[in-house]
Amino acid sequence: MAEWVLRRTAARVVVLDQHGHTLLLRASDPADSSKGHWWEIPGGGIERGETSAEAAARELYEETGIVGAEIGPCVWTQHAKFTFAGWKFDQQEFVHIAWTDRIDLDTIRPGGLEVFEAMAFRGHDWWHIDALLSSTDAVLPRRLREFLPDLVAGRLPDTPLDITHIDPEITF
Known about the structure:
Layout: E1 6-16, E2 22-28, E3 37-40, E4 43-45, H1 52-64, E5 70-84, E6 87-99, H2 115-120, E7 121-127, H3 129-134, E8 138-140, H4 144-152, E9 161-162
Parallel strand pairs: 1-6, 3-8, 5-9
Antiparallel strand pairs: 1-4, 2-3, 2-7, 5-6
């Protein structure tokens, strides 16, 4: 019998402040502490009837409480397979860029996390590109460090770039 896999379409968002810093969420898997922690861009599943931009704005609010960010175009796509909280995911992701004024970290409050998200998120931080590039912390998307410098510099692709990272360890 085949194992159950959640196949879905998701939206994520690279949030930049007026100084080019990127907002990342610190997360860990509540069902598997051996994975350690990582830093990720906000995002999640697209609901019926939503565009990817609408989902990106909703997910940004749910995971950070940020409203009023300027949601820009989809800049990247990726096909991601992963296990989180004991669930296997197979999803096509649309990654948008967004701009907002820098928000004090003490005032960032999620606007509606799901149970596993509430257990997973361990904080957030604004990352300067140089600090992110020199860090050895895991990041999601996995190729974030490779493609983020262009966005910070204001160089957006004409069409979304496929940034899929093939992970030979993930099989299902």
